[in-house]
Amino acid sequence: MKKIFLSLVLIISIQTAFACDICGCSSGSYFIGPFPQFHKHFVGIRYSFRKFSSTMASDEAQFSKDFYQTTELMAGWNMGRKWQLLAFLPYNINKQNSDDGTKINTGLGDATLIINYSLLNKTIGSTSHQLWMGGGIKLPTGKFSADPDEIVTTANNQAGTGSYDFLLNAMYAVKWNNWGINTSATYKINGSKDDYQLGNRFSASAFAYRSIPSHGKATFNPNVGLLYDHLNANQLNHEKVEDTGGHTLSAAAGLEVNFNRIAVGFNAQLPLQENLSNNQTSTTIRGMAHLSLML
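User: That's the sequence. What structure does it adopt?
Assistant: Structure tokens below.
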């Protein structure tokens, strides 16, 4: 089977990161970042973490410091030259330290299936272009046991969202010799559970990278990029929930290393500008690491 040309292909992994039970906000986001090439199939495991800090504007005695971790199984299949299927199954560990004490919620998260179609795969001289478009579905496989009488706050610390959600995405990449730029945009349409709906979300990213072959068989791919997330306000009974939604702009830097059919990588993200929950929630740091096997 023909390889995907890119040394870094943008794919999407839903990593729902809840924050701020005192504000009733949900600061979930996507991580959209570089991923190693594969032949026909790949399997892998990825670890990610997110840290948030929240303080209620009307009462600074009400606070929350949140640490969310996800370990995720992932797999991909190329079906001919035009179609690509991606699958993700996360396990979440959510920890909140607040004025009410410590809450820990762990369990299987929501599985995601995404299918992409290649609209462009062309090489002109030493420059190559790829354009993929597709969509997917997030299944409510994670446990959702929020108290219906306190769903605004208890929904924020669940292993899953309890709803079927839908995704639309596009990915464009250009590579010239050993340099490349990958861009991606995604829109997620959230369903509802117990009349509570997390806000729809738009995410976009752009990464620049350089492939550096070593004297052995390893290739090093340092990369830097920007990520943007816009979160609509949550809704309860079709009414806007106050102090939810917002946006974040983050800078990212990382390294991918390919050795034969094995790939490892890491990435760290720091906020440049953000406004979450009317500036009551802030992101401190996000990061990830993965190990993948191309088949």
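The longest helix spans residues 151-154.
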